[in-house]
Amino acid sequence: MYSFNPSFSSADETHVSRASWIEPDTSPGPLAPELLSRLHHYWNAANYLCVGQIYLKANPLLREPLLAEHIKPRLLGHWGTSVGQNFIYVHLNRLISERRTETLFISGPGHGGPTLNACAWLEGTYSEVHPDITPDEAGMLRLFRSFSTPGGIPSHCGPHTPNSLHEGGELGYSLMHAFGAVFDNPSLLVACVIGDGEAETCPLEGSWKSVHFLDPRRDGAVLPILHLNGYKISGPTVEARLADDDLLKLYRGRGYQPIIVAGDDLPGMHQRFAAALNRCDDIICEIQAAAREGSGAVRARWPMIILRSPKGWTGPKVVDGLPVEGTFRAHQVPLANVIGNPEHLQQLEDWMRSYEPQTLFDDEGRLAPELQALTPPPALRMGAVPYVNGGRMLVALDLPNFAEYGLEVPGPGQVIAEAPRKLGEYLRDVMRNNPRNFRVFGPDETNSNRLNAVFDASNRTAAGPCLDIDDHLASDGRVMEVLSEHLCEGWLEGYLLTGRHGMWSTYEAFAQVVDSMVTQHAKWLQQSREFAWRRPLASLNILISSHAWRNDHNGFSHQSTGFVDNVLQRRSDVVRVYYPPDSNCLVNVFDHCLRSRNYVNVVTCGKQPDFQWLDFDAALRHCSQGASIWSFAGSDDEAPDVVLACAGDVPTTEAVAAAWLLQKHVPGIRVRVVNVVDLGILSAPEDRPHGMDHVSFEALFTRDAPVMFAFHGSTWVIHSMVHGRANEARFHVRGFSDLGTTTTPFDMVVLNRMSRYHLAIDALSHLPHLRAHSLDAVHFFESQLRKHHAWIREHFEDMPEIRNWRWTADFSESEAPPPLAKGHVRGQTFTDA
Fold first, then answer.
1. In sequence order, what are the residues at sequence separation of 6 or more whose Cβ sits closer than 8 angstroms to the Cβ of residue 535?
2. pLDDT digits (tens, 9 = 90+) for 768-817
3. Where is the Xylulose 5-phosphate/Fructose 6-phosphate phosphoketolase C-terminal domain positioned along the sequence (predicted)?
4. Whole-angstrom Cα distance, residue 360 to residue 727?
5. DSSP H helix total and E strand total for the chain
6. Which label site among 18, 162, 489, 679 has the fewest CB atoms less than 10 Å from its CB?
7. Assigned superfamily of 402-610
């Protein structure tokens, strides 16, 4: 353990040669003098490239005096984190070369792009995927000119960076991605650099518990490297101000073996960090070997490194009389007025020349041969290991025949079932067929969401000791449950990004916790399409099963449909949104999702007992089309007076019931029912790639008939989808209007004015030619709403005509609800929470 002195900065503004910092090695450590010197020079090269990316548009190797015209007019970038990450990267290269370990580098600190770009260029992988950025002076200049400029590359890690699979624009997700990457990858080491600013985020705070889910028998290892450089943009970070003893206690309590490396002295820091890396790798190998031989603990205490180094290390120490190195002033651009201030320009030149670029690069601008020798073997470079481009590792799933999971439906609405149960059986067999590359992720709700058949194939992963009273819990379980939406979604992302498959299920209201994570992943997929070398990934598949309309028992806190609202803000070529209305449609949709690539698929289908409408063959046809006319529920397929459209299981029930009521109480009315399962097809092809053309759209919805649309979510979604269609004002949408409480199931649709009675009244209000024949029906529907209001307050349940209703072709009143499918449970499960 090394003590930390936060006062790194010196009052001396003079830059000495960075090369001369390495004195003859007298400190103990694993690095021989010659290797230590080369490592230091390689580090100088990476640092030089980072500075060049921020500042230079010309004169990349300073072959002439630095002039104002060589400087970019707009200076962007983050110097403060770059030098510490370069230090780590260079030392990992040494470890990889010596021990032949397949290693990924995840850059957690914000805007760590300069490091990943520089190190990828030095190791050659950048030029391999971007041939115009050649590994010479011309390519160096193009790299500099592309950084944070129009048409160039961002200041954070993105898909353009070959040694990154982690979108670095938002903080908090690095460690969960790292653990997701090593699940079922037994030979992989992920070195995850966590910035001390990032360590303050809630997602990162929650990620430390991931270590308890790591199984050394079958998984790889994560080496967290907490980089404490002291400051965020303007203030100190919490953990950087903790004493070493407190840090050790904190991370031991979290289940790790922490090793602290601290200082700014050279060569001591090189020797200490190299020793820490060796020790960590030794511990990892010991844990894995013992577990795989059967003699070690399954739940081990894994190592981590806490690296204390100055922010902006090796940069300007003082600027305009104010300390910079080791302070928040080093966070972004230490010398901000280079063009207009000759003193700053001179400081920049002195700073860059202090790395002695003439010793790092040859006459052509290529990395000096003796430094190139430090690069790991080609296949082990961190920009070349296949895991970093997970599509290269992707093996298609061995999927069962989804037709074998059809629910028997003798007729529309003639059976009631919990739709996800058959999906659970399908996923069970997906897990059995793919025991090394498919996992199910979710909060503590696999049973609650009716997917419990998966436990026939695998247990939950135990995060600690197993007790006799536990249910389906085992150290080798592959169902990943933890009560954190961040972890579930982040683990799955890491798993997918390294070439595997999976799915995540959750409650609808709380899926919004990860709105930003899904946004970042969708953007990663979108940008990846720009690079042919980025191979397609398995899609991010999300099942929303405990949704707003059937959380009447849990109350307003559990009633929200906004997750899809956020997803639909993403580009249409990377998101798909599905609303299967019943069990057979759900299995059809999910089989399609598991076969898809490079999408975010959101599937919403309730878990409570509900009507089952289509047999398997009908469901297959319906889902293949994305939307279709349900002739059984309507009265006229040619020229309807009104179209009742629906998307979502509860809206479907209400729309079909509304059609039934209209046909029963308004003789002669011509009604068409259209069910939509793939929401995106409502849009025109110019707006969404798989949208319906106008001819197909009008074949479903007609050209001029009024459309009453019952939708699961926000009404604006449908209006935005049909924008630009013929006579779009004829679409009248009812959906979730953020009105809810603890109440009955039917009262939820009443509160949001989407009930069968509201839909029927709305439909008749747009049919003036039937007004004389429909007044009695409207009065009846309105009286039913008043009766409902009083009934539920006296009896605490819905009216018998609601509870016992079923669709019948002769419009007779039902006396009893349809039978339950075998193995399903009638009524609300009030213990679900």
1. 389, 390, 391, 392, 394
2. 998 888 999 999 999 999 999 999 999 999 999 999 999 988 876 655 66
3. 607-807
4. 68
5. 26, 22
6. 18
7. Thiamin diphosphate (ThDP)-binding fold, Pyr/PP domains (3.40.50.970)
